[in-house]
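User: Ferredoxin--NADP reductase. Structure?
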Amino acid sequence: MTPADRGARSAGLRARVVRVIQETPDARSFVLDPGDADFDYRPGQFVTVRIPGAGGGVARCYSLCSSPHRGERPTITVKRTADGYGSNWLCDNVVAGTVLEVLRPAGAFTPDSLDEDVLLLAGGSGITPVMSIAKAHLSAGTGSVALLYANRDERSVIFREELRALADEHPGRLGVVHWLESVQGVPSGAGLRALVAAHADRRAFLCGPEPFVELAAAVLADLGVPAERIRTERFTAQRGDPFAAVDTGGPSGEVEVALDGRVRTVPWPRGATLLEALLAAGIDAPFSCREGACSACACVLLDGEVAMDRNEVLDQRDLDDGLVLACQARPVGDRVRISYDG
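Assistant: Predicted structure:
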């Protein structure tokens, strides 16, 4: 039976780990070689990794700390978490030469311009995508970077030496302020405000544990930073398996899809999401989490009607512009037209 008959397994890529870097006692970076696969990415994006295990394994998302503008190999950083199956498996088992199954980079925590000044706030392993953004600005743009980085103590500071080297390499363009709980206590609103108020006119990027992100966002809002100038990234556990096979049997309508300059019409089974229908038809549609949380699969609805099961990332303006999440969209009616080409 063909994939079109039974659905299709998501198109994972094989990436070989060429180097493992011990960043801190509980954090490691994994330098990847995806071979000839299409692995283009933007600063701040993440990679979904299949973690082997019982029942076919699980999927976990890890941010890229590398910059696509510095000639670096793509690199993800993983920090152990208590009872974290994925992080502990990677840190305990992966060595140089290990081959990982991954999805293409995805995510919307990315800068629109590398030429504007930015304010970056990171907590713990939230430094990972922030580091990618900082390096991209410094190496390929003209904007300056102000970074506030919070950790438990000095031993917990990921990329400590690399941040110091970047500051030396780009004098006057990178300012780094460390907040250590062992010295200053848990981050407070008043403390953060005092440190970032001078940069309240900048676009801000926030990543880290939920309490830190919520506190930082509230401080920036209180300083008058418009919501549209604040971008946040939150690390959440994957609920489903984006690598799993999908079943696209049953009655079908059809969808006309424009992707990469080509227009095709394929069946859209009633019980399938748009992404499942496209993958089953052999169309290499972009996606990552399959949970309506990352926007990697967003496309424009040109004609027809769809209903989304879940949406955590598209705001009302996006919806008014016709954006839908392919991984969550189901058909309402017999025919739909969508485009990934803008």
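Residues 200 and 332 are 44 Å apart (CA to CA). The first strand starts at residue 13 and ends at 24.
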